[in-house]
Amino acid sequence: MESLIVDGQEMAATDVGGANLEEILVNLMDHPVINGRVITGVYLNGAPYVEDAPHAALEVERQSISTLSLNTLTVEDLGLGFLEAGPSYLNAIVEALPKIVENFRLGDEQEANEHFLNFLEALHLLMTMLEQTRHVLGLWQGQNADGASALNQYLESMVEILNTLINLQEQKDWIFLADVLEYEMTDSLNELKELLPRLREKGH
Predict the structure, then answer these.
(1) Greatest CA separation found in the chain?
(2) Is 144 a residue whose pLDDT tops 60?
(3) Pairing assessment for the beta strands 3-6 and 67-73 based on DSSP bridges
(4) Which has the closest alpha carbon to 124: 159, 80, 164?
(5) Which is nearest to 24 in space by CA: 32, 37, 14?
(6) What are phi and psi of 71, to 5 degrees?
(7) 37 Cβ contact partners less than 8 Å away, ≥ 6 residues apart
(8) d(CA 106, CA 90)
(9) CATH 3.10.20 fits 3-73, yes or no
(10) For the chain, how are helix, strand and coil distributed in percent, rounded to 5?
(11) How far apart are CA 127 and CA 96, in angstroms?
(12) How far are the Cα atoms of 52, 100, 182 from residue 110, in angstroms, in the given order?
């Protein structure tokens, strides 16, 4: 590896060990130059690098790397970025609901359940990011009591809706499940769209 650049600043490639890309990235996470930041972009020999399979970076040998460039963000900036981009992500989730609802009401269980599972995965990712962001930005702290209270109430109501959906799926009550998705879940996701900008203000 001839050149190592982190956030536009070149550093000595010899300061970071590793026989392959995965080992190099792991070692970088412990390096003072990263200092707890999150790697948000990896550019290998001038091209964006994305793993197409778990641990694919093990196959990228160090000698094949000419230039390795990384972009990083603090966890706080990452959390604020999530709160800013969240409404757009939520729009995509909400837009997927009508088709799922329609399939359940038409009795197309196989296709409905397939899209429903994809919806649940997207929602789980969203909730995970929200959970991480609230801790990073101190959204449970006393100085953010209003935002914390609203977020707490929201998460509790979302858990109730999800439990209802899972129970209905187990019971194969597709019509009632469709009703919950169309009304309660849609309203809940739209409520979160309005809540995220308020949380972003609290997180500054």
Answers:
(1) 62
(2) no
(3) parallel
(4) 159
(5) 14
(6) -110, 140
(7) 72, 73, 74, 75
(8) 25
(9) yes
(10) 70, 10, 20
(11) 17
(12) 28, 11, 19
The per-residue pLDDT for range 114-143, each reduced to its tens digit, is 999 999 999 988 888 888 787 776 654 444
Give dist(CA 176, CA 14) in Å, integer.
Answer: 61
End-to-end Cα, the chain, rounded Å = 39
CA angle 133, 135, 138 (to 5 degrees): 105
Name the residue ranges covered by the structural domains of the chain: 3-73, 76-203
Which two structure tokens, joined as six digits, stand for 175? Answer: 């019509």
**Single-letter amino acid code for the residue at 68:** L
DSSP secondary structure, 33-65, as one string: TTTT-EEEEEEETTEE---SSTTGGGGSBGGG-
Tell me which of 35 and 56 has the higher pLDDT: 56
